[in-house]
Amino acid sequence: HTRMDPLMLLFLLIAGLTVSVQRRESVTIPCFYDDRYKTLVKYWCRGRNVSSCPPIVHSDSPQDGKVSIRDDPHQPVFTVTINNLTVGDSDFYSCGVKILGDVDVGDQVYLSVTDGSPELSVDKQEVTGVEGDSVSIQCRYGNSDSLKLWCKIGGSCASERSVSLDGRPVLIRDDTVNKIVSVTMRGLKRKDTGWYWCDAGGWQIPVHITTLLFKSTILFSSLVQLALYVGLGLLVLLLIIIIITWKVQDKHSEYLLMQTINK
Ligand SMILES: *[C@@H]1O[C@H](CO)[C@@H](O)[C@H](O)[C@H]1NC(C)=O
Ligand SMILES: *[C@@H]1O[C@H](CO)[C@@H](O)[C@H](O)[C@H]1NC(C)=O
Predict the structure, then answer these.
(1) Which ligand neighbours the alpha carbon of 49 most closely?
(2) Cis omega (within 30 of 0) for bond into 76
(3) What is the pTM of this model?
(4) 120-212, what's its fold?
(5) What is the pLDDT of residues 69-110, one digit of tens each?
(6) 3-class secondary-structure state, position 165
(7) 7 lines ligand 1 (CB under 6 A)
(8) CATH 2.60.40.10 at 6-114, yes or no
(9) Ligand 2 atom 11: the closest Cα is on which residue?
(10) Considering 64, 110, 128, 204, which has the largest number of Cβ atoms within 10 A of its Cβ?
C-alpha cells in the first residue's frame, strides 16, 4: 500500500483558525490550497469532517443566501464571506476541495458569533495602501494577558519585540489600556499584498492587504504606452509612404516602357 494519503499532502495552510465575530457582522475567511487543486471545485461546509459535511456553497455556484465563495486560482486561495451572522451560526466549518474518486481535502475553522464584543476584531478585513506608503491595522482584543502576534499566512509571525516580518519592516504596538494592537507596515511593496492575521489569546482574525501601484509608476507606464502608440503610428505612416512611392515608381516605369515600345 504505497498510495500517499491525500490528507498528508500539502493543502490548506490555515489549519485551525478560531475566529470571533459580533452578531449581524460579516466575516471573510481565506482558504489556501495547493497549486494542483487550481481547477477543482472548492466548497465551504458546516462541520469538522470535510468528507461528510454538507456543502453550503461551491465555487461553481458561488452564492447561497448570506454565504458567498470566490476562488482565485492565481494565488491560489478561495475566500468565503458570511454576512449578517447570527449566534446560531457558531460552529466548526470546513474549507474543502472536491477530488473526484478520492477523499476530499480540507481544513477547519471555528466561528464564534457573540452578542457582545468579539474576542479579537479589526475594523476592516480588507486594507489598501499605495506602494511606498504605510498602512496601519488596529486589532482589538479582549484578553490582555496573551501574547499578541501579527502573522503572514504561509510565512512567519512577528510580536511587539519584532522589527520585521519575513524581512519586511513592521512596527507592532500594544496599547494595553485600550486593548488595541497597532500594526504598521512601512514602505509598502507589491509583494506585501496578501493575507495576514492578528493573533491574540487563541483567537485569530484574517486581514488582507492590497498594495496599489505608486502614482508615478502609473504615470510612467502611461507614458511608455503613449510612446508605443506614437511609434506604431509612425511605423504605419512610413509603410504607407513606402507603398505609395513604390506604386508611383511602378506607374512611372510602366510609362517609360510604353514610350520605348511606341518609339
Ligand atoms: C469523515 O467522514 C467520512 C465519510 O463519511 C468517514 O469515512 C470518516 O470516518 C469521517 N472521519 C472522522 C474523523 O470522523
Ligand atoms: C439578518 O438576520 C436576521 C435574523 O435572521 C434578520 O432578521 C435580518 O433581517 C437580517 N438582516 C439583513 C440586513 O439581512
Answers:
(1) 1
(2) yes
(3) 0.76
(4) Immunoglobulin-like (2.60.40)
(5) 999 998 889 999 999 999 999 999 999 888 877 777 778 899
(6) strand
(7) no
(8) yes
(9) 84
(10) 204
